[in-house]
Amino acid sequence: MYKFQLILLLYSSFVFSQYGYKPQHEDGIEVGGWDKSTEFNRAEIDRVDINFLKKTFLNKKITPVFVKREFREYSYKNFFKTKKLKKIFKDNSYRGLKSHSSNGSGGTMVLYDPQNNYRQLFGKVFLVKNIEPITHLKHISNSDDTNFIFTIYNIEIGEIYYKYNSKFIDQIEIKLF
To answer: Where are the domains of the chain?
Structure first.
């Protein structure tokens, strides 16, 4: 019983000591969440406007950018089969048991499940049919970034979707053809 009273006393004193506490920066500036952030107001940040994207890419031919071999595993992760961005576009034609050998012999057979789609997308030409902000996905639309979805079309592949985060202006994975 004594332990419970001691814990209750310590907990209540902690709660009451925090009552009315406002976190402040050491310079007297109030601390806030990401919604109070001045991140996009800095001079070195270039915010991308949807009108700029439409003027640059809409109804024009694009192609995915070249990526060095060692970075291909981590590239092209923003291409999707559905507009809801649930099904990532993957190269399913190159999966299964593959020989893993550096000297040309049979080597070890490994189950290969491709995690990138560089082989499927690089060199293909797409037409940008539509560009719109992502508003139908709350976890994306409520973030501090401005995210856009490009509807792109290729005769061989069909219609797929490209998610672009405007915060990373230099990390766009497409270019004009």
So the answer is: 2-36, 48-176
Look up the pTM and report it: 0.64
DSSP the chain: -HHHHHHHHHHHHHHHHHTT---B-TTSPBP--GGG--GGGSTT--PPPHHHHHHHHTTSEEEEPP--GGGGGGS-TTEESSTTS-SB---GGG-EEEEE-SSSS--EEEEE-----HHHHTT--EEEEEEEE--S-HHHHTSSS-EEEEEEEETTTEEEEEEEETT-GGG--EEE-
Q: Give pLDDT tens digits for 30-87.
A: 656 655 666 656 665 566 778 888 999 999 999 999 988 778 777 888 899 888 888 8
